[in-house]
Design goal:
Blueprint: H1 2-29, H2 31-53, H3 72-90, H4 92-113, H5 125-142
Helix pairs in contact: 1-2, 1-3, 2-3, 3-4, 4-5
């Protein structure tokens, strides 16, 4: 559990930094140039880590994966593009706030219906109140 919390915090930090950094890159070289650069450098890092951690590279089971799930890279490009546009148009704080609220709502829907093989989570009134409080807190944070 501690590991999950730690990596979730790291992801939150990195997503926030990435949105800002990518927006600054895109201001100089353009959105799709920046997106290509970001994913290119990400690929290089991922490939180096793969080589360092796993001497045996084997993608033979990739055909066992639902083809829908193979769109992760495409979704990543759309995320980076959208985050760059959001940060450029609204600023980092507002953009990330909208991203967080949207993530909470979409994952709530995914968990209610068990979409994409996720376990169905029964949401009690207290869990729904907690979700509403989280979203309200994120929105209140943005008020002046």
């Amino acid at each position: 559990m501690i590991q999950g919390i730690t990596f979730s915090i790291i992801a939150g930090i990195m997503i926030s930094l990435q949105a800002i950094f990518n927006a600054r890159i895109s201001e100089k070289i353009g959105l799709w140039h920046a997106n290509s650069f970001v994913h290119g450098t990400g690929f290089i890092l991922a490939f180096i880590v793969l080589l360092l951690l796993n001497r045996k590279i084997n993608f033979t089971r990739i055909n066992e994966i639902n083809p829908l799930y193979l769109l992760g890279g495409v979704i990543g490009a759309i995320i980076v593009f959208s985050a760059m546009k959001g940060v450029s148009g609204l600023g980092a704080s507002y953009s990330v706030t909208i991203i967080i609220v949207t993530q909470l709502l979409i994952t709530f829907i995914i968990n209610i219906f068990g979409i994409f093989g996720e376990s169905v989570i029964n949401f009690s009134p207290i869990k729904i109140l907690g979700l509403v409080m989280m979203i309200s807190g994120v929105i209140l944070f943005q008020l002046r």
